[in-house]
Amino acid sequence: MQDENSVVKNGQQAPPANFNFLEMEKVIAEKHKHISNETTPNMFVEQKNGFDYVDEAYMRNKLNEHYPIWSWEITKYEIIGDVYIAVHGRLSIADRGIARHFDSIAAHRIAKSAKGYVDIGNDMKSANTDAFKVAVNRLCNISDDVYRKLVPDYELTDEQINKIYSTIEGLDESKQDEIKNAIDNNSIHRGNFDAALRKLRATKGETKDV
Question: In this structure, are residues 163 and 196 in contact, taking their beta carbons and an 8 Å threshold?
């Protein structure tokens, strides 16, 4: 059913006039951050040639859990020098109602014997699985901990901010504003919080432990 406030443009329904894009961006970003911080169970992590790989069934299950509306399409495949088979694929998801896509490519060595190809169909399936897993990780942040895509969160917690605010009470306004700006622009963050708090307390002549 079409929203009475929405507009149809070029045959497609545009968001309603009161749609808040900034709020939606924030919601989507928070969801991806939450997924990125999830820990992949060790039982689903495999090692091959010194690298960690996540089981495809696990990633597919997490994709169904977090983005139940999705599709995977092989857009192209090619045989490279009779040695590798490459698969180009596209993952499409509905991310809080927003259509998003990611194109990925993966190659797998073609198994051969004296009689020729062993099972080129199986080689193609392996390349397809690898391309699919790359797209799921890059677009959906699933298993970021394994694929080394996890970005540490250096933003101060509310408790840390409150500690700093209580410490700077009594300082002149310009100094307090300087500290608050340092918090806002992440000059003071989790990585240097202890040192910053000690410095502030020393400025006030305090010697309490952090």
Answer: no
pLDDT in tens, 16-69: 566 677 888 888 989 999 999 999 999 999 887 777 889 999 999 999 999 999
For residue 203, the tally of other CB atoms under 10 A from its CB is 12
106 and 127 in contact (C-beta within 8 Å)? yes
Instruction: Provide the whole-model pTM.
Output: 0.64
